[in-house]
Amino acid sequence: MIAEVLARSGVSVRLDETTFDYDGMKLDFDLTFAAGEITAVMGPSGSGKSTLLNLVAGFEVPLTGRVLIGGDDYTNASPSERPVSMVFQENNLFAHLDVAQNVGLGRSPSLTLDKADHSTVADALARTGLGGKERRLPRELSGGERQRVALARALVRDRPVLLLDEPFASLGPALREEMLDLVAAVHAERPMTILFVTHQPEDARRIARNVVFLEDGSVTASGTAADFFSADGPAAFQRYAGSNAGR
Ligand SMILES: Nc1ncnc2c1ncn2[C@@H]1O[C@H](COP(=O)(O)OP(=O)(O)OP(=O)(O)O)[C@@H](O)[C@H]1O
Fold this sequence. Notes:
By secondary structure, this protein is α/β, with parallel strands linked by helices. It has 9 helices and 10 strands.
């Protein structure tokens, strides 16, 4: 019962006084991402957005501080132990595996799938509009379809936290909107906690409830998307958004 309620309401993600250092670039994060909400992570190139996601995913480990997911301490847990899925801008798929196999990896890294797993994969493929393309290889798909496969794999993993690191950045505007609407629709059915890195203000506006804004390795503004995009939004964000509006 408690697990059911948690699954429906999502889990919070907290970076508790975490610090990190890349070749002299210092990053420090102390913030909580609201449970079950979509939060856009924005900021100039090199401000630390991917690093923040990598700390949550476990691809990087903080020098100090803690990573809490649903209140539990995952600071030293490996990526596979974390209740997290991630979709990157590209290179999400194995070139020699077909669509169904690439998605099936989300259920079992050795692709030992039972009947229920196959049915979960089929559902995810249908949900992401990939029905009928199960046997295709990644190179036989469009860029948008490849990102659908990556999203389908994240869905069959069924983890409460979904990290999206500019997953639709290489797609044209119409396809990007379609993919964003797909993410929003999936989120409406299954309120995962989604951290969504994007450079596009209109993408954040379309699907995110909250925004965090990074500059030089730390969060300099955070709040609701409604506040960020109002005339009284944070000045640094408005300057940044203005310069990215046409990108
Ligand atoms: N593997 C790495 N080794 C050394 N420095 C790195 C590495 N990855 C990132 N950095 C540095 O850490 C800082 C933050 O990088 P990060 O990729 O998190 O920024 P970002 O906000 O995601 O940028 P972008 O919008 O360009 O993707 C940058 O100064 C970057 O040069």
